[in-house]
């Protein structure tokens, strides 16, 4: 227990974390800083597999309504997922397939870029933490060698040298890198089902706006 207590230095730990955040912010910008910490609840709450199954079931209803009543009536289908609800509304309001396809491509590109910013921010922390730890080690060693004539000052300087390296490894390998990997995995799975959904909506829109389809509807009317 005493060894564990000796490993905990709140001031050094806070300075290490703050330094890593400052460096990552300098590399990626304040928007990435906000997005990185706003994404933290997603780590445990997000379930892309569940969202994909719900999206497929919802899209089946959208396809059915579009086939019976046309694209303008697809907004009758309700969706809890914000992306899915927006996509259905855009499909219902679209004036042409090309316009909806352009919206889908731009939206997917924006989401991918936003996810990459967050992922890079945490990777920046993982990269900078060991470097900051090494810098702290050098500072501690300089302090130790400059106080060789005072044994009372050697211990704290040596502790600083070792703790900064230890904290750098912990922040990089037990915090930042796992978070970056988890977010990258969630992003890949989320973008997969969203891209699949957009592709299916585009196919439905092309089918419903095809000249043969419109002619047959007029004949039935």
Automatic annotation (TrEMBL):
Q: Where in the cell is it found?
A: Cell membrane
Q: Has the keyword Transmembrane been applied to this entry?
A: yes
Which GO terms of the cellular component aspect does the record hold? Answer: plasma membrane
The way this protein sits in the membrane is described as: Multi-pass membrane protein
Annotated transmembrane regions: 121-145, 157-181
Q: Which residues form the MotA/TolQ/ExbB proton channel domain?
A: 80-190
Query: Which InterPro entries does its entry note?
Result: Flag_MotA_CS (IPR000540), MotA-like (IPR047055), MotA_ExbB_proton_chnl (IPR002898)
Keyword Hydrolase belongs to the record: no
Q: Which GO terms describe its biological process?
A: bacterial-type flagellum-dependent swarming motility; chemotaxis
Alphabetically sorted, this entry's keywords are: Cell membrane, Flagellar rotation, Membrane, Transmembrane, Transmembrane helix, Transport
Which domain of life does the protein's organism represent? Answer: Bacteria
Provide the family line.
Answer: Belongs to the MotA family.
Give the protein's recorded name: Chemotaxis protein MotA
Annotated source species = Sphingobium jiangsuense
């Amino acid at each position: 227990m005493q060894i564990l207590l000796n490993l905990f230095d709140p001031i050094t730990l806070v300075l290490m974390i703050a330094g890593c955040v400052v460096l990552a912010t300098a590399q990626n910008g304040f928007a990435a800083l906000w997005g990185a910490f706003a994404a933290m609840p997603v780590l445990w709450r997000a379930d892309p597999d569940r969202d994909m199954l719900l999206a497929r079931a919802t899209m089946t209803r959208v396809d059915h309504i579009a086939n019976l009543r046309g694209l303008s009536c697809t907004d009758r289908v309700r969706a809890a997922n914000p992306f899915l609800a927006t996509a259905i509304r855009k499909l219902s309001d679209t004036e042409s397939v090309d316009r909806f396809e352009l919206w889908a491509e731009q939206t997917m590109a924006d989401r991918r870029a936003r996810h990459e910013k967050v992922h890079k921010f945490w990777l920046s922390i993982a990269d900078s933490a060991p470097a900051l730890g090494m810098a702290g080690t050098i500072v501690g060693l300089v302090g130790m060698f400059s106080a060789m004539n005072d044994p009372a000052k050697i211990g704290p300087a040596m502790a600083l040298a070792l703790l900064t390296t230890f904290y750098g490894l912990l922040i990089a390998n037990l915090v930042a890198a796992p978070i970056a990997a988890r977010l990258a995995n969630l992003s890949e799975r989320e973008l997969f089902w969203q891209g699949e959904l957009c592709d299916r909506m585009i196919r439905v829109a092309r089918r419903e706006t095809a000249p043969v389809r419109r002619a047959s509807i007029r004949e039935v009317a």
